[in-house]
Every structure is written in structure tokens, then in C-alpha cells.
Amino acid sequence: MENIFTSTEDFKRKYRRMVESEVGKDFEEADDNERLATLCNLVAFRSRPIHVKNDAEILAEKKKRVYYFSLEFLIGPLLENYLLNLGALDTVRAGLIEMGTTLETLAACEVDPGLGNGGLGRLAACFLDSMAHEGIAGYGNGMRYRYGLFKQQIVDGRQVEVTDNWLAKGYPWEVRRPESAVEVTFGGDVVRHQEGDRCWFTLEGGERVKAVPYDIPVVGYGGKTVNKLRIWSAEPVEEAFDLDAFNDGAYAEASKFRTDVEAISTILYPNDAGEHGRILRLKQEYLFVAAGIASIMRTFKRENTNADGTVNWAAFPDRVAIHTNDTHPALCGPELLRVLVDEEGLDYDTAWDIVTRSVSYTNHTVLPEALETWPIDTFRRLLPRIYMWVEEIDRRYREEFTQEHGDRMDLLRDTAILWDGKVRMANLSIICSHSVNGVAKIHTEILEREVLKDFYQLTPEKFNNKTNGISFRRFLGNANPSYSSLITSAIGDGWLDDASELRRLEAFYNDPVFLDAMSASKLENKQRLAAYIKDTTGVVLDTNTIFDVQVKRFHAYKRQLLNIFKVMDLYNRIIADPGFRPVPTSFIFAGKAAQSYVFAKEVIRLINAVADVVNNDPRASELIKVAFVPNFSVSNAELIYPAAEISEQISTAGMEASGTSNMKLMANGAITLGTLDGANVEIAQMAGAENIQIFGLTVDEVEALKNGYYLAWDVYNGDRERLGRVVDQLVDGTYARLSGDFSMIHDVLMHQNDADFVLKDFRSYVDAFECLCGKYADKRAWNRMALANTANSGFFSSDRTIREYAEDIWHV
């Protein structure tokens, strides 16, 4: 790999000069934030010629461009990742030490961009990394949120949301491109025009908004490909400042129009509990789609216009792939159709052929209620011309359906786009796409068998599976320096380029020196995380205990509740029997609950209430501790994953699409305690049944209970001593000291009949946990299991996933 700096001295000279020119200070006078921003700018500067060279090659070789539309890109801090990818990590690290600082000091100043929230956004970021690594001309298209979802604080055990002002000090990686701005219109009136046989429509009036792009470099490992992530910010087309209102003292009213427009890109996932929030969210979805499609069209026309001025539209599907990550970008199909017909003058059939050969769709949920819909009245009022195109797509779909399938109203009811007063975005995505994929083997099977079974019956050739993947370079290479160094010393650094190389670690299963070195690495990572947890929460963890980790978005089906029930049960047994000595364990939780998701926030409150009791009881605190890490992000995730020893993947079977934390934890040598759900199924196959702990109901058993007889009270009464005691403690005051009892959780379990089968899986879960902990005493045997997980984790590289997308879906 060619280093972007010829030597340490070359780096220091260029870096010092850039600090002086950009900051206007000597390096020694600049503060850490100024030094960080300049270092990021230097790396970005050195990467731009690579991007220019790539673009020239794409044009010369007529390469296909892939545009990945996602409302989230959880890219995390980029500096160390890009230094690794550009071969400059060691050079910069050494150079900074010689200059009187450290890379770790500067990297600690880098913010987590507030461009994503959970697995959806992290997957999108890994895919961009892998597209660049694989030499694919791949471009992210998303929103530039002024504020992230929120910063999570824990106050009296409760989640409190505060503003995530991630742009407060600027963002050194981005470049504003005002010359590429796109005008987008909301509302207005659709006007019909007729000239001879030709009929066309225009949109008149309405709210005009300017979408301004900001480009962030995406540097591929090896430094041969630099792509970009383009994110859009909403601004007024024209400055509408009311001077009279301002002079009258109505300052807010004077700039109200600007404020209303900028609200579109102010925050990720505005609270959609009310009508204003829902409209704002639909505006976000259309703005980044319309702006992205306009950007694609500019590039395509520039590169595919003939000498006579005509555009080679027939080449569009061979030059452009548009991938929609979940249903947020579902409007890509109708917007592309609108542009091709309304603006470019193509006939409908030609335009529709281009749309369906270019657009593809990834589904991320098996929950029918999570499939996005919009009231027709709201949709039509905000996007009148787009609604006409959606209506036309739906009309033609129905017409063709009737010709092929007659009066099969059962099929039409589940597959039509417009039904029961709603626009169904998943159906729109499927009909506009040539490919529909799930993100784990079992997830795709559930889509085909249940959630999207009617579409699968009609067009089985559209459906395929693409099991998710992660970036090993970031989540093992960057995040876990001690373990990655150990791996590299044993098998070389080829695994950074090709994660399947990790298989070579199988040769060390019985190597006592390597296995003992794993213990030293894990201890170092646990000490690092324990120090962070003490600083952020005050909780002191014993690094000789097992670190049991569950870190992910809070949701009922992910069953953080089941996990804390296990802790409550252990506590009860310790108090009831002084002779009961479980394997000492630290239970680490992290994750955010959506602002309006009351149940999930109650589970967070319960975890913190249990922590307050358990951690302060000397009878138990030496054996079990509970820590809730606030404001889960890529930054602190990179501390948590390397330190974990048990990976909690305990969602209700059949509910998790894939998961990616399970892959990150596996790669870092944590042993999965989980259900046969999502990618856990494939993890069990890869790692081997002896190196993972599976428990609980299967997908088929869950379905049987849903369709048959299940009564939570029967399970409760059948285990009053342990499970019943835990359930009773929700309302008997045991954990009420911080903020009161937990009657809502009790009601969901006992009076709403435990929809996620927390009670049903409880005994199987706690037994599996004890079985797994029982293996911890033999450290070499434990490390052998951990090493088997790392060695067999290479399949879950996003590089592999992207190669499958490229070959099977995008045809790159």
C-alpha cells in the first residue's frame, strides 16, 4: 500500500505548513480542535487527487455508478479509519509524537456526525467503505442534519433527550457545493397543458426550497479509490426577510420563512406523533430523493450526451444503479419517472423501463406495522405531481394485475400501492424495483413466506438475500488495536484487505501462547472501557468479571427487558441464599429509545433502577454490577465491542432482520448468547454450535404460539418462585427508589399478554446464561471459543456483502 506521505518528516512538514496557513498560528500555539480540523483537511486534501483520477477512469471506461440512497449514514469519526486506509496511520502516529502530541489526543476531539441513529445507518456507512475498497463507483445520498437524533442523558434513571449540536465547531471533512444546488417544490398546483397531440403538466406555485449539497470523502482501503457521500441541506431559494417586521421588533417573524425551510434538515427523525412532525418527515424524504435524482441526471447527461445534443437514454440502466435503503427513499421510482417524462420528454413506457431496470430495494423489517405508509390526503397535498405519478403507477399495476390474475382481490389488497386511504411505501418500492432483498437468510425467508408473500408469489425472481456485513477495518482494525496487532503478528495484515484471511487463525486454536495473549488483550480492552464507564457514569466495574454486553436501539422485540430480568433474578437468588455464588459478571447496556417510544424508555428506567439497587447493595455488588452507558454512538461502541465477552443477541425469534452488533462483537471475540434470529442463525453455522449459546423459542414455535394458545399468566404462575418474583418486583416498590414503580411494563406483560414472549423464554435464557458462564473458569478453553468466533467471522465482512450486491443486483 502506498503511503500518502513519503516519510514522517514529509508529514510533519506538510502538516505544520497547513496549520500555519489555515489556522494562522504556529503548530505549538494551535489548540487540539484546531490541530484536528487541520489534520482532517490535510488528509482530505491528499485524497482529492485520487477522487479526480477515479472520475476520469469511470468516464473513460464507461463504468456503472451506484447511488446508495439512505436517510441515515452513521459514519462515525473518520480520521483514524482514513489514515489506515491511506497507509499513513503509523507515519502520522509517529509524527505527532515527535511534534509533542498524540493521534489519540486529536482523535478524541473528533465528533460523531449526527447523520444516523442505528443499524440502518451504520450498515450504509460500512457499505460506502466497502464500495470504495472494491473499486466500485459508489456514492451515498442522504440528508445533512443540523442536529443529530439527540444526545441521551440519564437523569434520575430516565432517558433525557438534549440537542446533539454536532456542527457546533464545524465539520472539517465536508465541502459545501452551492453550484450543485437543486430546487425542490412542495405543494403548489398541477397545471395541464395541451399542444396538438402532446399533453404535459407543470407544477405552479408552492413552497420552493433549495437543496444544497455537502460532499464528504469516502476513502477506500489501499488508497486507490475515493468516492463521496453527498448530504443535502435545505435553504430558502430566495432570502425572504421581512424588514418591516424586524424593525417593529418581531424578530422571529422577520425570518420565519428561512426558519420553516431550514427545519426540513434540522433534525434526524423529527417526532412524528403529530401532523407537523409527519409532514416534516415526508418533506425530508422527498427533498433528499429529488435532489439526489437531479444530481444523478446532471452527471448522466454530461457523460452520455451525443454530438448532436441528444441524450443516450437507453444507456441509463447500464450506467446508473439506484439503491434504496429501506422505504425512506421509496420516492426514487416516481421521482425518476417524473423527471424522465415531465422534464426530458420520454414516453411513459420507455421511462418506466428505465426506472425498473435501475432501482433496487432493501427491506429491513419483518414487522408489518413498521412498513411505512402515508395518508393519501397528506401525501397529495404536499407532493401533488408526485402523487399523480404514484396514482398512475398504481393504476397500471392494477390493470396489468387484472389481466394476469383476474379477480384475485386477496392478492391485490396486499400488493396495490394505494389502499384504504394510504400510500404504502414498501409496495411502491417493490413495484418500482427489479430487485428486493432481505438482510439475513432467515429474514429473507420470512419476507418470502409471510410479510411479502403475495409479492413473492407474483414475482419470485425479484427476491434475493444479501446477509449484512460490517467493516472489519474499522470495528476490529481501528477499534481493537491490541487484538488486531496480535492477529497481524500471527497471520499478517492481509485480513484487513480480505477478512476471509481470518480463517488462518484456526491454526492457533491450541496455541497456549496465543490464547494467553488473547487474555492480555481482552484485559487491556476491559480496563479501557471500565475507565470510560467510571468517567461517564461513576460505576466502577471489576475487570476480572465477565463483561456481558447488550448494545443496540431499544425496542420491545430486542428484549433488553429479558436481559434485566436475568439480573433481577440473579440479585434475588444472591439475597435469598448467601451460599449462591454466580460467576461474577458486569452487565453493560447502551442504546437510545425513540423520543415517543414510552415502553422502551421505561425499560431504560428499569435498567437504571436495578443498577441503583444492585450496585449499592454490598451483599451483591461484588458479584454483579450493572452499567448503562449513555449516548451510544460509534465512538463509544468502539470501546465496548473489544471489551465484550458475552454478546447478548436475544430478540424474539423471527423479529430481528439481521443485526450487525452481533457481527462486530463476534469479530472481537465475544461469544454470542442468543436466539435463532436474524444473522445469529448464520453466526451459529459459521462459528459452530459449540462456540455459541443458543436458547429459546424458534421462529416456528413463536408463530405457533401467536396462532395458537399462549397466556402469560400461565407462565407466571408456573414459576412463581423466580419469574413470578421478578414480575412482582415491577410493582412492589423494590426498584422504586429512583423514580417510581414500573406498572406499565407489568401491564404490557401480564394484561397485554407478553407479545414478545419475554416470560416464555425466561427460564431457557437464564439457564443458557449460567451454562455459558460455567465455561469461563477455563480461560484457555474460553479463549479458544472466542478465537473460533473471530476466525469464522470473515463471512460477515461488508466487502463480501457488497460484492454480492454488485454481482447480483447492480450488475457492476
Can you characterise this structure?
- The chain has 812 residues and is α/β, with parallel strands linked by helices.
- It folds into three domains: 1-61 and 89-109, no CATH class; 62-77 and 112-468 and 803-810, Glycogen Phosphorylase B (Rossmann fold, 3-Layer(aba) Sandwich), CATH 3.40.50.2000; 503-796, 3-Layer(aba) Sandwich (Rossmann fold).
- 49% of the residues lie in helices and 15% in strands.
- The protein is built from 34 helices and 23 strands.
- Strands 1, 2, 5, 6, 9, 10, 11, 12, 16 and 17 form a ten-stranded mixed beta sheet that branches.
- Helix 1 (8-23) crosses helix 2.
- The two termini are 25 Å apart.
- The model has no long low-confidence stretch (mean pLDDT 95).
The name of the CATH superfamily of the largest domain reads Glycogen Phosphorylase B
Q: What is the number of strand segments?
A: 23
* CATH class identity of the largest domain: Alpha Beta
Q: Give the terminus-to-terminus CA distance.
A: 25 Å
What general form does the structure show? globular
Main sheet specs: 10 strands, mixed
Cofactor: pyridoxal 5'-phosphate
Pfam families: Phosphorylase
GO molecular function, one term: 1,4-alpha-oligoglucan phosphorylase activity
Family: Belongs to the glycogen phosphorylase family.
